[in-house]
Amino acid sequence: MEPTRTLKVIGAGYGRTGTLSTYTALNQLGLPCYHMFEVLQNKANTTHLDFWSRVAEAPAGQQHDWNAVFANYTAAVDNPASCVWRELHAAYPDAKVLLTVHPRGAEAWYDSTMDTIYFTEIYWQAKVLAAVVPFMRKLKRMNHKLIWQRMHRGTMRNKAAAIQRYHDHIAEVTAAIPPDRLLISRPIEAGLRCVPSSVCPCPTRPFPTSMMRKEIEVLIANMVKGAYVMGRRGHRARRGTALRSGAPVLKPTRARFVSTRC
Q1: Domains (ranges, CATH) in the chain?
Q2: What is the model's pTM?
């Protein structure tokens, strides 16, 4: 199927560098944006985890049918897309590469990551769910191989090594992308004009900030109570879904982004 859109913005920044705020901002600018929430929460994307699982199992640098996940998007930030920023830059050479960096530096990024999105590696709830829920098992394996091993080179258990990898990643992106194609943003400090007028001629507005720890808590609650729509091929959600049971359903709308915490 031919894509209805093509990527104009490729996010190369690590998760927890304001990617959730950037995702919201780009959507507000009229640039439909891909983010991990599109994998986990968008019911139209029930095949996407299988796609990213195949990417995780394939060698780094291999091209895939990116249209299978990006056909309805013009931007992509955060994991898992940022893990393949090199491949996406090769596939979409006219796109700008957006490198988000944490406004308070590498140590703040590390602490934030360990406190939130590293949950699939260390939270006991994630381990229990992976043992009994196929979706969580697949998510945990994809995260481990693509994000924490390929992107972060297995450094996250060692703070000094992880911070050094953070700096190395920034150096790699800035060395690989020509200056006229590269955008560097500290999202919490920026306005919505982190995207230049050549991509989207929209006025400056206050940049949305995000509240991630609550999102992670609700994410796990949804998994526990069966809120996810599993893949159509053998992993359908049980009848007792969160919508029927009253469990909270995470919808990352503009109204939720109210905390000043990155």
Answers
A1: 9-210 (3.40.50.300)
A2: 0.77
Question: Does the pLDDT of residue 16 top 70, yes or no?
Answer: yes
The pLDDT > 70 percentage for the chain reads 69
Position 185 scores a pLDDT of: 85
pLDDT tens digits for range 150-196:
999 999 999 999 999 999 999 999 999 999 999 998 765 444 445 55
- What spatial distance separates the first Cα and last Cα of the chain, rounded to whole Å? 37
Sign of CA dihedral 75, 148, 137, 215: negative
SS3 262: coil
What residues contact residue 95 under an 8 Å CB cut-off, 6+ apart?
6, 7, 8, 9, 10, 88, 89, 181
Beta-strand pair 182-185/33-34 = unpaired
pLDDT at 219: 61
Query: In angstroms, rounded to a whole number, what is the distance separating the alpha carbons of residues 139 and 46?
Result: 12
CB distance 101 to 170 below 8 Å: yes
Contacts of residue 212, Cβ cutoff 8 Å, sequence gap at least 6: 16, 20, 112, 116, 117, 261, 262
Amino acid present at 233: R
Helix (H, G, I), strand (E, B) or coil at 96: strand
